[in-house]
Task: structure prediction
Amino acid sequence: MFNLGNLLQLTTFGESHGAAIGGVLQNFPAGITLDLQAVQKELDRRKPGQSPLVTQRKESDRVSFLSGIFEGKSTGMPIGFLIENDNHKSKDYEHLKDNFRPSHADFTYQQKFGIRDYNGGGRSSARETANWVVGGALARQILPENIEINAYVSSVGDIFCMKPYQDLDFNLTDTNAVRCPDIETAQKMMEKIKSIKKEGNTIGGTITCVIKNVPIGIGEPVFGKLQAELGKAMLSINACKGFEYGSGFCGAKMTGKEHNDLFNADFSTKTNLSGGIQGGISNGMDIYFRVAFKPVATLLQPQESFDVEGNPIALEGKGRHDPCVVPRAVPIVENLAAFVLADLYLVHQTRKNKF
Amino acid sequence: MFNLGNLLQLTTFGESHGAAIGGVLQNFPAGITLDLQAVQKELDRRKPGQSPLVTQRKESDRVSFLSGIFEGKSTGMPIGFLIENDNHKSKDYEHLKDNFRPSHADFTYQQKFGIRDYNGGGRSSARETANWVVGGALARQILPENIEINAYVSSVGDIFCMKPYQDLDFNLTDTNAVRCPDIETAQKMMEKIKSIKKEGNTIGGTITCVIKNVPIGIGEPVFGKLQAELGKAMLSINACKGFEYGSGFCGAKMTGKEHNDLFNADFSTKTNLSGGIQGGISNGMDIYFRVAFKPVATLLQPQESFDVEGNPIALEGKGRHDPCVVPRAVPIVENLAAFVLADLYLVHQTRKNKF
Amino acid sequence: MFNLGNLLQLTTFGESHGAAIGGVLQNFPAGITLDLQAVQKELDRRKPGQSPLVTQRKESDRVSFLSGIFEGKSTGMPIGFLIENDNHKSKDYEHLKDNFRPSHADFTYQQKFGIRDYNGGGRSSARETANWVVGGALARQILPENIEINAYVSSVGDIFCMKPYQDLDFNLTDTNAVRCPDIETAQKMMEKIKSIKKEGNTIGGTITCVIKNVPIGIGEPVFGKLQAELGKAMLSINACKGFEYGSGFCGAKMTGKEHNDLFNADFSTKTNLSGGIQGGISNGMDIYFRVAFKPVATLLQPQESFDVEGNPIALEGKGRHDPCVVPRAVPIVENLAAFVLADLYLVHQTRKNKF
Amino acid sequence: MFNLGNLLQLTTFGESHGAAIGGVLQNFPAGITLDLQAVQKELDRRKPGQSPLVTQRKESDRVSFLSGIFEGKSTGMPIGFLIENDNHKSKDYEHLKDNFRPSHADFTYQQKFGIRDYNGGGRSSARETANWVVGGALARQILPENIEINAYVSSVGDIFCMKPYQDLDFNLTDTNAVRCPDIETAQKMMEKIKSIKKEGNTIGGTITCVIKNVPIGIGEPVFGKLQAELGKAMLSINACKGFEYGSGFCGAKMTGKEHNDLFNADFSTKTNLSGGIQGGISNGMDIYFRVAFKPVATLLQPQESFDVEGNPIALEGKGRHDPCVVPRAVPIVENLAAFVLADLYLVHQTRKNKF
Result:
């Protein structure tokens, strides 16, 4: 209960400023030659301090694998892994012991559990997503090699990448700090973030993810629909406020005649407003979805708040925080998507009588 | 695996044109005096044929309860229930045996499973949602009585209900066929649907759901966030293309200064862009979210398609279909939301040391 | 939570004297041609009234399938099924409303839930096992055809079948009312049960189950060991008091030199004290285990007890009860074993990289 | 899937000779003041090298806690923990690369997964049970303080502790190396083990566990019976061959008149052949059960076997192995029992309408 995945299962632990975070990846098939460098590379894409646009916190984010791997291959046993927290600056957070930051989890954790580790947000910190990147980057290695999963920043504030994803070269995504493959738009986004940062303010954005070459048949018919599993995973990311796939919210404005994806003779479809999923199951067309992220709640400018006793205070973010989460969330979205696909892909192996 | 809920668990079965659909609701607390009329009333709100706006299929949709209830109270045992399908018209569907309807699950089911019950869409039919309404309407009776769950149609095509939900009287929602509490807008929506229907076309729409008086503390910190569980449930509804809560996709355009919900001295918040959830856990403010539905795929006008052998054919919907799903989806959204809340509410009883 | 199985999942409902019992079998692979007569035949083996040795209650125990089957084949959708209770004699049980029968679940249900359906034991009745037989008899059809599952009564009271299972002809099991394939011993067992029945008393017994031709590799290494899953299933049967496999409790008296199963050159083993399972995983040798059942608690002779207010009363079983459960438990043991194997067999399809 | 527990959930990882073993304990209630010394103490009871009767391997078995604990209290977040393997002697095991030891998991792992970590048995090693002791010793701290869980060695080979548990002083259990509280019998057991060890042989035994003061109502009615959950946990322990509770296999020889536990006026029972559980639910009487362990398979004398190519070889155990597992299994049994109880205890908090 409360793990990621159904058959392939990721269980995680760890607070932002504890000794380490980590997890256990269970029911991973045996005999897969693992590329652990690829896992670390995904972690590196997520880690702070990569560009002036993101937080300058130093986290080395080295993952170590403790089990389930033998002579470079998965053994089918649980893969335990650990990421040490090498940058505890707990004194940065002592002022939060008796205070609740606006739009953070401080208040709800305190109320729900009666206790909370207030250092760096404790368990509510997005540091947890490093665990998901590890799990997802391993899970990706279960999938057929030709599956391509590409996410990119499709908007920052009111600056949108207006090109359809088909016109983008995903090789360009990581060439700029904001991770938008449309270089002109990327430039505007980066300027926006810099100016917002200068104000001590933050800004929201969206990420679009495109998955190509998914085999037909991934996803379960009722509870376990591919879009529902993807949506749940994305809505678990800190700061995520919305998920849409295929035509999404725009589809709600359309008529059936406009929206229906007519078949070609090979049962590919002429259009793809379905977003590659029909009846919860992949149809072989591109899967694409969009995820909305709110602006980071920690501001480097004073905000009115109250302490636990209800006295008015002025809170000001200390430490090093992201002015905009979306650039660093790109690998999180991609690797979560890989995880969801791999989980349902394994389940799919059992759904047809072929034994 | 692949049930609805974590601790409170709904397992369902049934095809659109089989003998019956039904389900089992497990881990329901004992000793709750059940209002079974209220359950039937929710089912009646979902059933077809209620207005000229929706399909004229006749389904009596009477639920019968087979277990878990004794002298009007829950016994803690699984509640088995059954809804007979009294309107099998299988001959309506024989033409689908060898054909795949555009934007339906026909093709993906056939590919995934190598076999499908093509009558009325079989398991892929939205008839399944009747089971969810039963489960949700029972689950609602676990929740504190003062919780109010109100969904309404907030758009049909490009006609939007522009009033904020705070200005709406939810008592008006069920007074019109489209289930929009803003009467003037409702009128326009109904006209839109009628004209679309006349063309043999269909149209999409959105539903907004508002939940008041949720106790603080519902939802789990990482996997099991309240928004993720709500999102997953909504994205499981047939035709759903998107989910957003609180500020949603609009929040992605905002700055932190605009978006943060400052506290009042009693730890309610001055604004509520968070949508009543912070860090995955309810904060006591209104929870609100919006769900997008694509237009129904079955058109009463010819569409090009291909049969299983790849020969071009013209398909035209037969039978009685909804021109727009959103009016009938309102009780589905409400009851699914109730289910998700009740599940996490039960879990919450175990999260703090109070035994 | 609280279903039977991990991937293949049986969810059940129903009280002994409600309208019906039934269940939902999920994640059943598509495309299997189902022998539904075989399922009914297993149910018939379990049903009461088959011989003078067992209860003379009349239960027709006809199972009807409501979903998941199309033109004789599984579709991969949940299989819903129902067994009507055609023999409600609720007035037989009114005396139990305020009384607790010794060694029954009356007292614990009342204390745990604060409410109970006292008719025929409600949910605590062994009638529930009819659901398991249906689930198991379907699950058996997932397994390779050459797997043979044979259970038989290996003791009644102090009368033991002393022959090793290798010397028994399982075709004889169902030729006598007590279901012991050693005819001479069967005779003694039947006489024992008749004499016990005449006294209004009951008697316990054991069942041995032998499974041949299980492929190597079924079972999971740590949580999900084959013996643990079998043991859990068997210990869920009403009246079950113990489970042992392979050498069992006798093995605890032995030395390693005596107990180790040395290999043959083909990696079969010379002996099989392991009972076909090593490290939680089948090794291709016969799996065998033994299950202990206590005597039925309902006696047709007066017993001292107390009513809910603590007043002393004399309770005497009414209705028609089994003097000994083991003959009817034989198909329950076999079909539960089939279920456990099929569940872990499906899981096994995902454990090695062969996609 | 394949974790320990239902609501309270332990996920583990680790091979015998990897860098570390460890686990994640999820859904642990917040606000419990944790006695971490008590956890270490239980681990110390399990660790090797404590007496001449057990293996002389040196494992320091220090557990470190990485999350979920703040200022000495549980926070409700997952508790991650690690036990480093400080005694890798991998060269001891190189001879096993191409060989399968009789009655070990070497062969089944290799066949199932196509790959195995052969060092020290890898994941199949009983070292994993150290993780369970940690999980169980934490879980115990959820339970009401007056619950007493006492296991002891009740037989070694054919030497049995003949006294009923009621006549034993559990304070004496840990005063001798074999962990039998009947000192005279303990003496005989220890001599037996010493003589067996001298031969390079091993011997089996049984453990009895007694749990006092369990509140009435723990356990679920059908899938989730207390005895089934206890049985499953025990049958997961390496070398376990059988489980019985209450009257167990002896109960199968008895009549109903002998076996029924008549009530006292306060609804305690005059006898307790039920073993404290009726209908799967605790009735407030002592819970007691017995677990059978086969002799350790690794012998320090030559055994015939075959290498992977089918060539005959003589295998002789190297390294340091237990001549008898039961003394060290006592804390494993106790802590697993605590885990099962705590899990079902938490579930029980949600089963009655009291919110």
